[in-house]
Amino acid sequence: MDKTNQQVQISPVEDLMREHGLLHRILLIYKDIIDRMTVSDIYTPEPIYSCIRESTIIVKRFIIEYHQVLEQDYVFPILSQHEKYKQLIQILLTQHEAAKCATDEILTILGSELKRIKIYQKRLLQLMSEFIQMYEPHSAREDTVIFPAFHQLTPPDTFRALGEKFEDIEEQKFGENGFQNVLEHVTQIEKSLAIYDLNQFTLKCR
Predict the structure, then answer these.
(1) 16, 67 in Cβ contact below 8 A?
(2) Where are the beta strands (DSSP E) in the chain?
């Protein structure tokens, strides 16, 4: 990690929550694609399938194999020591496994030839929809219950050290500016689908 360019160290909670933000942008990509494929017949399969594939690879590498591992290795063990959080932690762990299972199945379908993907398109849309339905409440519960409790229950020195550790692990896995590079990839997918411009989502209030 290049600490000379980092004026303020990112806390472990901020790190995890911005990763949730990146994931939610992928969920918006999934939602847009589901709408295109179910509401409108005007879409070209190849580029749409490519967007799903690229987005899901990011989910696998950045969320499943990195973000969830941070939670399981450093966050959940602290909360599991307290009876109040044990049941919730178990549910979250079960959902982590479900996310991995769904992600692997999506990539398996997309690894087939185009003709076969079309055959399994209904299943593909179901997996994406169910992933959204699970991960929206999952991440919301972590942001509002798990992460605040993790902050409260972790000694200040340990909390600060974990912030640096998370950044170091991120750099080891994704290189310098790893998060920004992954975010830029998500941005490019958004632009290819014409959903990057935030203003297009502004409510038209009379």
Answers:
(1) yes
(2) none
pTM score, two decimals? Answer: 0.92
pLDDT digits (tens, 9 = 90+) for 116-126: 888 999 999 99
3-class DSSP state of 195:
coil
Tokens 């849309």 appear where? 125
34-130-144 Cα angle (round to 5): 110
Contact in structure between 112 and 123 (CB atoms under 8 Å): no
Closest CA to 30 of 129, 162, 168: 129
Backbone conformation region of residue 124, classed left if phi is above 0, alpha if psi is from -120 to 50, else beta: alpha
Match 């994931």 to its residue by tokens: 23
Q: Is 194 helix (H, G, I), strand (E, B) or coil?
A: coil
Closest to 168 (Cα-Cα) out of 19, 7, 15: 15
Query: Could you give all domains of the chain from N- to C-terminal order, each with its CATH number?
Result: 10-196 (1.20.120.520)
Q: List pLDDT tens digits, range 15-25.
A: 999 999 999 99
Cβ count near 55 (within 10 Å):
24
**Distance separating alpha carbons of residues 128 and 46, to the nearest angstrom:** 17
C-alpha pair distances (Å), 121 with each of 13, 20, 28, 46, 106: 37, 27, 19, 12, 10
Q: Is 205 left (phi over 0), alpha (psi -120 to 50) or beta?
A: beta
